[in-house]
Design a protein that fits this description.
Elements: H1 2-10, H2 24-50, H3 52-58, H4 63-66, H5 68-91, H6 93-112, H7 117-145, H8 151-179, H9 184-187, H10 189-203, H11 216-237, H12 241-262, H13 272-275, H14 278-298, H15 301-307, H16 313-333, H17 343-362, H18 370-397, H19 404-432, H20 437-456, H21 458-462
Length: 463
């Protein structure tokens, strides 16, 4: 029954000739190039997150402002994802990935040389654009590397490397911070970026290109819509009500103009035609809520461990690492299952486990041992690793052939939109409450439970 449901779902996007995939050494080389670029993007995000307390201290910035080191990257990434996914369909997904890796390399140098929070924030924003080039076409490339019947394996392997990157990030960050200053978390990007650039040039497959001309006005409106709304909401979260309201209002006006402009376009930058497909919409919504939950935990937890549990920098990274280990392990385990069982089963169970792990962390006493923190974090990470691959597969197979770029872009928008929303909520809670640590964990629990409920009911909501 489950196999039949999955097969019916896959017919929406299956084109045997277009999605024939690669085999043997070609697949290994191409997937290695994709995963190395992905690792570059994820690793840097995870390392920067662990270094936030040190950056805030060294640059004399309050914690609520230092979070912009993460937010600037995410907001620039989110704002540019859909235009770059659309542009990638025209210039080629492989070329777009190479552009992103090169930009990431250059901006890593800018981050390392920054002398104040403003310089670092601007460099991180440009780095976010480079990350968007990579992430906007990441799953689209996987769609062409793996044949349709094995797509779940490719997406799970993608999720495995996300987990590895997030797992290595805190560990590497803790090691770097124990022997050097925070700029070195950006200097270590250079050898990885150079290796990724070489592999991408030689191994990534050439994919069919869209013949539709680039939509420059639509791209500008899309970037303005995301950026103004994100900056405006951040201002409101920090209590800057007048500029926050003005920027939020400007962002909403840009969204209205964008949606009017897009009507009737064959391949709109914001793929409202794909969102009209209810399976696609629900999968994106579940992904969004899952990442709201994860970032309420990931962004707030270093401060929680430092202020509430009184752990040092090196210990903080090691206590967050079990989350990413759980994500990586379960992403590997769920690979074959994602092609056999529907997301309404696997993703729902994953988010339920994640919410339970967050709940157990929420209930911890302040004198909890490192082991008690670590196994609860591992449980939440295992749930998140179970949730991601089936839900990502559901997004990709709900889109028709020829719309791989738009679907890949929306998958990343759901992820980054959730992460950015989670980070903004953390900033708001840190501004409003003197000790918001456990409030963030409570919010993460609720967001994960909500996502699990929608995922569990997606079969009925589609009908």
């Amino acid at each position: 029954m489950m196999k039949a449901a999955t097969a019916g779902e896959s017919d929406l996007a299956s084109d045997p000739q277009r999605h024939a995939g690669l085999y043997g050494a070609q697949r290994v080389k191409a997937m290695s190039a994709v995963l190395l670029g992905l690792l570059l993007s994820v690793l840097d995000y995870a390392i920067a997150n662990v270094a936030l307390p040190s950056i805030a201290h060294d640059l004399n910035a309050p914690s609520s402002r230092a979070i912009w080191v993460v937010n600037a990257y995410q907001l620039a990434n989110l704002s540019c994802l859909l235009p770059l996914a659309s542009f990638g369909a025209r210039v080629g997904f492989a070329r777009m990935s190479q552009i992103g890796i090169f930009l990431f390399l250059i901006t890593s140098v800018g981050c390392a040389l920054s002398q104040n929070l403003l310089e670092l924030t601007l460099a991180r924003a440009l780095q976010g654009v480079g990350g968007a080039c990579i992430m906007s076409v990441n799953i689209a490339l996987v769609r062409f590397i793996y044949p349709h019947a094995e797509l779940g394996k490719g997406i799970a392997l993608n999720g495995l490397f996300v987990g590895i990157g997030v797992a290595l990030g805190p560990t590497i960050g803790s090691i770097v911070l124990s022997v050097a200053t925070w700029p070195w978390i950006f200097w270590i990007n250079l050898p990885l970026a150079l290796a990724a650039l070489v592999m991408a040039h030689f191994a990534l497959p050439q994919t069919p290109r869209s013949e539709i001309q680039a939509d420059i006005p639509g791209s500008i409106l899309t970037v303005a819509s995301f950026a103004l709304l994100g900056i405006g909401l951040d201002g409101l979260m920090h209590g800057d009500f007048l500029p926050g309201l003005l920027l939020t209002g400007a962002g909403l006006i840009c969204w209205w103009l964008l949606l009017r402009y897009q009507k009737g376009r064959r391949e709109p930058i914001v793929p409202v035609d794909l969102l009209a497909r209810r399976p696609f919409l629900l999968a994106c919504l579940v992904g969004f809520l899952g990442f709201v939950a994860s970032n309420l935990y990931i962004v707030a937890m270093p401060f929680t461990l430092a202020s509430a549990f009184h752990r040092g920098d090196s210990t903080i990274g090691l206590l967050i690492a079990p989350w990413a280990v759980g994500v990586a392990v379960m992403s590997f385990v769920v690979g074959k299952m994602a092609d056999r069982f529907p997301a309404s089963v696997l993703s729902s169970l994953g988010l339920l486990l994640t919410s339970f792990g967050f709940l157990l962390l929420w209930l911890l006493p302040l004198d909890a041992s490192n082991a008690a923190i670590a196994w609860r974090t591992l449980l939440a990470g295992c749930g998140f690793g179970l949730f991601q691959p089936p839900n990502n597969r559901a997004i990709m197979v709900s889109a028709p052939a020829g719309r791989e770029g738009g679907a890949s872009g929306m998958l990343s928008v759901a992820r980054l939109g959730g992460q950015t929303t989670g980070a903004l909520l953390v900033a708001a809670l840190f501004t409003i409450f003197p000790h918001p640590a456990f409030i963030c964990l409570g919010g993460a629990t609720i967001a994960a439970l909500t996502g699990a409920a929608i995922s569990l009911g997606r079969k009925y909501l589609v009908d």
